[in-house]
Amino acid sequence: MARITLRQLLDHAAEYGYGVPAFNINNMEQGLAILEAADKVDAPVIIQASRGARSYANDIVLKHLIDALAEMYPHIPICMHQDHGNNEATCATAIQYGFTSVMMDGSLKADAKTPADYDYNVRVTKAVVDMAHWVGASVEGELGVLGSLETGMGEKEDGHGFEGKLDHDQLLTDPDQAVDFVRATEVDALAIAMGTSHGAYKFTRKPDGDVLAMNVIEEIHRRLPNTHLVMHGSSSVPQDLQDIINKYGGEMPQTWGVPVEEIQRGIKHGVRKINIDTDNRMAMTGAIRKIFVENPGEFDPRKYLKPAMEAMRAVCQQRMEEFGGAGMASKIKPLPLSAMAKRYAAGELAPKIGITRQAAE
Ligand SMILES: [Zn+2]
User: Fold this and answer.
1) Is the pLDDT of residue 356 over 50?
2) Strand, coil or helix: what is 12?
3) Cβ of 120: how many Cβ atoms within 10 Å?
4) How far is the CA of 347 from the centre of ligand 1 (A)?
5) Exactly one of 39, 42, 83, 240 is catalytic; which is it?
6) Nearest 5 degrees, angle CA 179-CA 344-CA 142?
7) What is the spatial distance between Cα 256 and Cα 152, in angstroms, rounded to a whole number?
8) For residue 190, which phi and psi values (nearest 5 degrees)?
9) How far is the CA of 115 from the centre of ligand 1 (A)?
10) 106-127, pLDDT tens digit by residue?
């Protein structure tokens, strides 16, 4: 079975200059849609589950669902990732259930809503890195708190995130601190705060540099050229999906997401993992609403879930192609966790800190 770690996958993405969309999952239909898209274009995939998704679907169901997808598509490398782990236990139990990668989000305290100080973030992230690397699993850390540069507000989704006003500097990852953080924690990937937020209501206009700080990505990549960067909250919230939902009885106020061309610009500057959930939720919802309006007598869930899956498959496939991952799955030979553990133990995967370290030494 072709399960892959985040580290091996993103190392490959860096070598070949592409980005990998990370799609959230909490049910069978989403899993089938993602893998069908990957199969069509020969792309590796990252599937991620939040704490909310794990409790919704149940860890045992999720574990067997991923096993089933891997068995159905043995030629597609699948990375199974914990999205926004809030503490060491969440990350440890994810690995126990077959996840090959975890995010330890130490930008917030274990309650997943109180912004944490830097020392706490380093301490808890390093503890998870040690534990995960012993068994070969990968770790994504986060520096900076996700929220809107337009409003200064943090955001909460699925019970995760700070609600309230944040300082401007909390909303933007500090490049110097990023270097220190990667050196201290040895994370495999780093999520940064640069104006993206979760959910559909990211921007009140098409974002420019004032509200989507792509320059922060470029600056961090300049200092950490070997660190894989992660963009959270990076759905594009396409107008056509908003229109379908609203045409068939939905009430979504006009909103803007992260334009695909900005993500493509990020991929040129070290962004390797791009988190997408809202676009898929919208695609499925639009398809279901259409069936309900056009055929109100329908009550067989398959009659509306099949079109919903097809709509999600189309979004996933489009992002795989736009981010450059098409054609890459067959180029990868996934290593088992045990082989990755040996590579960590041998020091092969320790972070290579770029120009800043050389300048300082
Ligand atoms: Zn996130």
Assistant:
1) no
2) helix
3) 15
4) 29
5) 83
6) 35
7) 17
8) -130, 120
9) 15
10) 999 999 999 999 999 999 999 9
